[in-house]
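hey can u check if this looks right to u? its 100 residues, i copy pasted from the old doc so theres a chance i mangled smth
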Amino acid sequence: MNRLLLLCALAAFSIAPAVAGSFAGSSAGASSAGSSGSSGSSSGDDKIVLQARDDAAGFVASDGRIRGVVLEAAMQHLREDSAAARQASDMELAQAILAR
């Protein structure tokens, strides 16, 4: 299982950068234009996405059958912040989270 998870994660790293480029930095870009209070909340939002990496790895490795609650929260956050993320599939978002 660990070997399968590692292989899936490595595959995601080679595929996801193209997908991630369109929406992965959206919250960071929004915070740079805002106030310092906004930038503090943005770093917390990015933390949500970073904490979803384990769930994203499980999601990708299981071909979408394992859906963790932290991953669900991160995908919701990304979709609220980015039009590109709203257009992406759950698998594309999970791969983008792994590529961060």
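The longest helix spans residues 2-23.
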